[in-house]
Amino acid sequence: MHDMPNGIGLGFRIGIADAILSCDLPELRWLEVHPENYVARGGRFAHLLSQARERYPLITHGLTLGVGAIDPPDAEYLQALRAFLAEIGTPFHSEHLCFSGSEGAMLHDLLPVPFNEEAVLHSAGRIRALRDALGLPIAIENVSYYADPAPPEMTEPEFVCRVLQEADAKLLLDVNNVWVNAYNHGFDARTYIDQMPMERVVQIHVAGHFTRDDGLIIDTHGEAVRDEVYELLEYTLEKTGPMPVLLERDQNFPPFEELAAEVRRLDTIYRRATGEA
User: Fold this and answer.
1) Please, are residues 158 and 115 in contact by the beta-carbon 8 Å criterion?
2) What average pLDDT does the chain have?
3) Quick check: is 88 in a domain?
4) Which of 107, 181, 236, 253 has the fewest CB atoms within 10 Å, counting from its CB?
5) CATH number at residue 55
6) For residue 121, pLDDT beyond 80
């Protein structure tokens, strides 16, 4: 296991991989990888990953083992994933507090689970089992959602905190998702941050979102980060102190210099909020 990197990272996506590997950007200190892109896969993906490992620390972030799922995870994939994580040396592995499918059908979306005690206990059990299977600390990420899947018994921040406590898990705090949900569902984003157990936060995500004509905002990972999300990040970092902060950009890639400018702006905010020289 490697030491925890701090500061600003980028998602190592195939569309910007060559630019990342050739850039001169000292503010970029680590990379995030999705294991699903590399487990049991060779060729160009394996070659790019090898180059990335030579230049940067890596942290893994999963897409398919949402801890709200009912279907049991594939045992062969878990075994292969454990070997991959050990090889990469990630200090922890993260997944989403969501489900993505049922009865073998994968919907390729991060769908919310009900904010109730049954879902707390189920999700926490899945997190504990995943931690045992992978032999690493597990962090869960709060997701954006656009409708409640069932009448809620508690608020979203109360639900997230209950799952974290029940599972004794870490938190990957996505401040863009907090902002999106706060705007769409009519609550205060800073109050949500205030309720999070900062001692459990091990990573932060920021991303861009898209505003529809009807005013609904959608978490797309395909837009520039908005000013209000930069401000919420700084508010959060003042509470957490130094840690890895990821700029998520998964599609609609601009010229790399625009991403580099976002990394530099994030680095400035990071240094100011954490007091890091």
Assistant:
1) yes
2) 92
3) yes
4) 107
5) 3.20.20.150
6) yes
217 neighbors 177 (Cβ within 8 angstroms): no
Listing DSSP states for 12-61 in one string gives --TTTHHHHHH---TTEEEEEE-GGGTTT--HHHHHHHHHHHHHS-EEEE
- What pLDDT was estimated at residue 251? 80
Q: Which helix (DSSP H) or strand (DSSP E) does residue 106 occupy?
A: strand 105-111
**Of residues 107 and 192, which shows the higher confidence score?**
192
Q: Which structural domain range is residue 18 located in?
A: 7-274
The neighbour count for residue 202, using CB atoms within 10 Å, is 20
DSSP code for 94: E
pLDDT digits (tens, 9 = 90+) for 52-78: 999 999 999 999 999 988 888 999 999
**Predicted confidence (pLDDT) per residue in 94-109, tens digit:** 999 996 654 454 445 5
**Residue 139 φ/ψ, nearest 5 degrees:** -110, 140
- Entry field: residues in the chain: 277
Does residue 1 sit within a domain?
Answer: no
With respect to residue 2, please indicate whether it lies within any of the assigned structural domains: no
Q: What share of the chain is helix, strand, coil (3-state, %, to 5)?
A: 45, 20, 35
Tally of domains in the chain: 1
Q: Is residue 137 exposed (0-12), middle (13-18) or buried (19+ Cβ within 10 Å)? A: middle
**Residue 48 included in any domain:** yes
Query: Which secondary structure element, helix H or strand E, spans residue 218, and what is its range?
Result: strand 217-219
